[in-house]
Amino acid sequence: MIHSVKVHFAEQDINDLKEISATLERVLNHPDETQARRLMTLEDIVSGYSNVLISLADSHGKTVVSLPRCA
């Protein structure tokens, strides 16, 4: 029984991550939006999940943004 519950939650986590990943790709690759607007959209997406952290880096490895932002 415990194994079944663990498998269920693992599968749910994988599905959530796939959905988040696809959404992030769509937002980041949306050519009609400014970078500021895309970042606001990302913040909105991440705020809906209590256990998701996102860090975006530029081509030099420098962190551009980390979400959620810490106060």
Automatic annotation (TrEMBL):
The record's annotation in InterPro entries points to: CusS-like_sensor
Q: What EC number is given for this enzyme?
A: 2.7.13.3
The answer on whether this UniProt entry bears the keyword Transferase reads: yes
Q: Which Pfam families match?
A: CusS
Q: Name one GO molecular function term.
A: protein histidine kinase activity
- What protein name applies here? Sensor kinase CusS
Q: What are the alphabetically sorted keywords of the record?
A: Kinase, Transferase
Keyword Kinase assigned to the entry: answer is yes
Top EC class of this enzyme: transferase
Q: What is the lineage of its organism?
A: Bacteria, Pseudomonadati, Pseudomonadota, Gammaproteobacteria, Enterobacterales
CusS-like sensor domain mapped to chain residues:
1-64
